Amino acid sequence: MTSENGFEEIHVLWISEGMSCDGDTVSVTASGQPAIEDVVNGLIPGLPKVHLYNKVLSPTVGGEEFLAPFRAAARGDLEPFIFVLEGSVPNEKINGDGYWSSFGNHPDTGEPLTLNWWIDRLAPRAWAVVAAGTCAAYGGIHAMAGNPTGCMGLADYLGADFRSAGALPIVNVPGCPVQPENFMETLTWVLRHAAGGAPPPPLDDMLRPQWIFGRTVHEGCDRAAYYEQGDFAKDYNSPKCQVKVGCWGPVVNCNVPKRGWMGGIGGCPNVGGICIGCTMPGFPDKFMPFMDTPPGGSLSSMMIKPYGAFIRRMRGITNDTLNREPKWHHDREVLTSGYDP
Ligand code: SF4
Ligand code: SF4
Ligand code: SF4
């Protein structure tokens, strides 16, 4: 159904039958601003009415009733819809005699319908296509070196120049799992665009929302002052900068230290977890072994050490001075404040 400027109703068809752990769906249920329940219940002004189909969140999981909207969309009988993929896309051209991943069976033959079969039919008909999590966006954990499935991200499968029926590129919201509000905020923008009330979401070269992934972990980290002062943790029990114990934050695009994980709480390095680059296209291979000092971290921490140590000493002196009250605060019979009428 359409209004003059956009859609009044839209379906969200969410498939997690990629090479997936369903962690992104679980994560998204923790979003508070907005909550997925608020979007589905129509509590967010300016959005179309949303019909969500997600196997983890559906009371009809497992049966034909659950598959019905997906089958209808694949036939071209259900629109408009947003196609959300969670998990990476296996290469079914190298599946030997079997298949890597399936979602329902063919009604006539009973043969499994592969994820790729569904993508081939749903993606071109979808008004928008959204990748939830790093696996769907770039391949992620399942696509690491040595995996037998040849799996990949959605843009590797559909092509980076893919455009949906709504003329949008794939919208990637990486993270392993995706940060709850990062996903819901992006989906809300896409829905608002579908309603005709907002321009398309601005994306960067890797098809990520610019406003979410435009800064590094380091630029938002609670521990950044320790880095600047050349004060580094030697183990994981320290509140200091963790670059020497494996943190990749200075070169990773992620807003989690600013946003937190649930209700603003958490945010990997803020709470003692090294950043392992889980939002990045090069994750995980380019960040392993996870707990070694990143190559650039050795050099930058070595260079900042003498500057940081000097600055820290100077700041210590200044801090000591600032921790004393001015000398004219006294109860003697003389004014020593410098007041000169
Ligand atoms: Fe699971 Fe992480 Fe892949 Fe999401 S991105 S499906 S949380 S492994
Ligand atoms: Fe940067 Fe990581 Fe150190 Fe935080 S803990 S200041 S992100 S290197
Ligand atoms: Fe992933 Fe690093 Fe962001 Fe944590 S801070 S969510 S490990 S990219």
From TrEMBL:
<keyword id="KW-0003">3Fe-4S</keyword>
<keyword id="KW-0004">4Fe-4S</keyword>
<dbReference type="GO" id="GO:0008901">
    <property type="term" value="F:ferredoxin hydrogenase activity"/>
</dbReference>
<dbReference type="GO" id="GO:0051539">
    <property type="term" value="F:4 iron, 4 sulfur cluster binding"/>
</dbReference>
<comment type="subunit">
    <text>Heterodimer of a large and a small subunit.</text>
</comment>
<dbReference type="Pfam" id="PF14720">
    <property type="entry name" value="NiFe_hyd_SSU_C"/>
</dbReference>
<protein>
    <submittedName>
        <fullName>NADH ubiquinone oxidoreductase, 20 kDa subunit</fullName>
    </submittedName>
</protein>
<keyword id="KW-0411">Iron-sulfur</keyword>
<feature type="binding site">
    <location>
        <position position="176"/>
    </location>
    <ligand>
        <name>[4Fe-4S] cluster 1</name>
    </ligand>
</feature>
<dbReference type="GO" id="GO:0009055">
    <property type="term" value="F:electron transfer activity"/>
</dbReference>
<dbReference type="GO" id="GO:0044569">
    <property type="term" value="C:[Ni-Fe] hydrogenase complex"/>
</dbReference>
<dbReference type="InterPro" id="IPR037148">
    <property type="entry name" value="NiFe-Hase_small_C_sf"/>
</dbReference>
<keyword id="KW-0408">Iron</keyword>
<dbReference type="GO" id="GO:0009375">
    <property type="term" value="C:ferredoxin hydrogenase complex"/>
</dbReference>
<dbReference type="InterPro" id="IPR001821">
    <property type="entry name" value="NiFe_hydrogenase_ssu"/>
</dbReference>
<dbReference type="GO" id="GO:0051538">
    <property type="term" value="F:3 iron, 4 sulfur cluster binding"/>
</dbReference>
<keyword id="KW-0479">Metal-binding</keyword>
<feature type="binding site">
    <location>
        <position position="278"/>
    </location>
    <ligand>
        <name>[3Fe-4S] cluster</name>
    </ligand>
</feature>
<feature type="binding site">
    <location>
        <position position="275"/>
    </location>
    <ligand>
        <name>[3Fe-4S] cluster</name>
    </ligand>
</feature>
<keyword id="KW-0830">Ubiquinone</keyword>
<feature type="binding site">
    <location>
        <position position="241"/>
    </location>
    <ligand>
        <name>[4Fe-4S] cluster 2</name>
    </ligand>
</feature>
<feature type="binding site">
    <location>
        <position position="221"/>
    </location>
    <ligand>
        <name>[4Fe-4S] cluster 2</name>
    </ligand>
</feature>
<dbReference type="InterPro" id="IPR027394">
    <property type="entry name" value="Cytochrome-c3_hydrogenase_C"/>
</dbReference>
<dbReference type="GO" id="GO:0030313">
    <property type="term" value="C:cell envelope"/>
</dbReference>
<keyword id="KW-0560">Oxidoreductase</keyword>
<feature type="binding site">
    <location>
        <position position="218"/>
    </location>
    <ligand>
        <name>[4Fe-4S] cluster 2</name>
    </ligand>
</feature>
<feature type="binding site">
    <location>
        <position position="21"/>
    </location>
    <ligand>
        <name>[4Fe-4S] cluster 1</name>
    </ligand>
</feature>
<feature type="domain" description="NADH:ubiquinone oxidoreductase-like 20kDa subunit">
    <location>
        <begin position="21"/>
        <end position="188"/>
    </location>
</feature>
<dbReference type="Pfam" id="PF01058">
    <property type="entry name" value="Oxidored_q6"/>
</dbReference>
<comment type="similarity">
    <text>Belongs to the [NiFe]/[NiFeSe] hydrogenase small subunit family.</text>
</comment>
<dbReference type="InterPro" id="IPR006137">
    <property type="entry name" value="NADH_UbQ_OxRdtase-like_20kDa"/>
</dbReference>
<feature type="binding site">
    <location>
        <position position="135"/>
    </location>
    <ligand>
        <name>[4Fe-4S] cluster 1</name>
    </ligand>
</feature>
<feature type="domain" description="Cytochrome-c3 hydrogenase C-terminal">
    <location>
        <begin position="213"/>
        <end position="290"/>
    </location>
</feature>
<dbReference type="GO" id="GO:0046872">
    <property type="term" value="F:metal ion binding"/>
</dbReference>
<keyword id="KW-0732">Signal</keyword>
<feature type="binding site">
    <location>
        <position position="247"/>
    </location>
    <ligand>
        <name>[4Fe-4S] cluster 2</name>
    </ligand>
</feature>
<dbReference type="GO" id="GO:0009061">
    <property type="term" value="P:anaerobic respiration"/>
</dbReference>
<dbReference type="GO" id="GO:0016020">
    <property type="term" value="C:membrane"/>
</dbReference>
<dbReference type="InterPro" id="IPR037024">
    <property type="entry name" value="NiFe_Hase_small_N_sf"/>
</dbReference>
